[in-house]
Design goal:
Blueprint (H helix, E strand, L loop, with lengths): L2 H5 L32 H18 L1 H7 L6 E3 L9 E7 L13 E15 L3 E4 L18 E2 L1 E7 L5 E7 H14 L21 E3 L1
Parallel strand pairs: 4-8
Antiparallel strand pairs: 1-2, 2-3, 3-6, 4-5, 6-7
C-alpha cells in the first residue's frame, strides 16, 4: 500500500509514525503540482492533514496519539510528493486566560501554493523554528520574508491571492519550502546562526 493509500483510509489518523524525518529523500525533492478538478484522493489528503494539525493542538488527542504540536504540515512530510500544505495557526488566549473570539488566526489547506511577491524586509521567529520532520533542536534565526503575497487554490479549485505578515507569513513560507525540498535550517547562517542583521524583524 502506498503512503497516500494509507493516509486516506477512513479509519486512519495521521500520527508521528507517518511523518518522515530528515534524511529521507522525499523531503529534498521538489513536489509535483496537483491538477484540477482535484481527485477525491487529494481532497481527502488535505482534510486528513488538517485533522492531524487539529489533533496535535488538542491536549487530549495529542496525548492519546503521541503527537507533537504543529501549526503546519506539507504533503512531502507524510511521504507524498505533492504540492499540498495545511496551515492551522491558533489565536492566543487573552491576558486573563480567556479563549480567543476566533480560535484560529489562519486555517487553510492550500493546493499548489506559491509566493508571488514579498517584502524586502526580512523576519525571523525569536526562538527559532522547529519542524515535525526534525527531531532535534537547531538553534539560530531562520531568515525569511517579513511579508508575502501567496497564490493558491482551495479544494473546490477556486484561486486565491492573499497577503500575509508576521507569524502567519513565516508558517506558510516554512511549508512552501517543504514542497520545494528546502528544510528550515538551510536558511540559518551556519557561521553566525544568532547574528541579527540590520533591519531584521524579530517575531515573538
Amino acid at each position: 500500500m502506498t503512503a497516500i493509500e494509507t493516509m486516506i483510509k477512513a479509519s486512519h489518523l495521521i500520527d508521528m509514525d507517518d511523518i518522515i524525518r530528515e534524511g529521507h529523500p522525499t523531503l529534498r525533492a521538489v513536489a509535483e503540482e496537483v491538477t484540477f478538478p482535484l481527485s477525491d484522493e487529494n481532497i481527502l489528503l488535505g482534510e486528513k492533514m488538517m485533522q492531524f494539525l487539529k489533533h496535535s493542538q488538542d491536549p487530549v488527542m495529542a496525548e492519546k496519539l503521541g503527537l507533537r504540536g504543529g501549526v503546519g504540515l506539507a504533503a512531502p512530510q507524510i511521504d507524498v510528493s505533492r504540492r499540498i500544505i495545511a496551515i492551522l495557526v491558533p489565536n492566543p488566549e487573552d491576558e486573563e486566560g480567556n479563549p480567543p473570539k476566533q480560535a484560529y488566526a489562519f486555517q487553510e489547506v492550500m493546493y499548489n501554493p506559491k509566493i508571488v511577491a514579498h517584502s524586502v524586509q526580512e523576519a525571523a521567529v525569536e526562538g527559532g523554528e522547529g519542524c515535525l520532520s526534525v527531531d532535534r533542536e537547531v538553534p539560530g534565526y531562520v531568515v525569511r520574508h517579513a511579508r508575502v503575497t501567496v497564490e493558491y487554490f482551495d479544494k473546490t479549485g477556486q484561486k486565491h491571492k492573499i497577503k500575509l505578515k508576521g507569524f502567519n507569513a513565516i508558517v506558510v513560507q516554512h511549508e512552501i519550502d517543504h514542497i520545494n525540498g528546502i528544510m528550515f535550517y538551510d536558511r540559518i547562517d551556519p557561521q553566525h546562526p544568532l547574528a541579527i542583521k540590520e533591519g531584521l524583524l524579530i517575531i515573538e
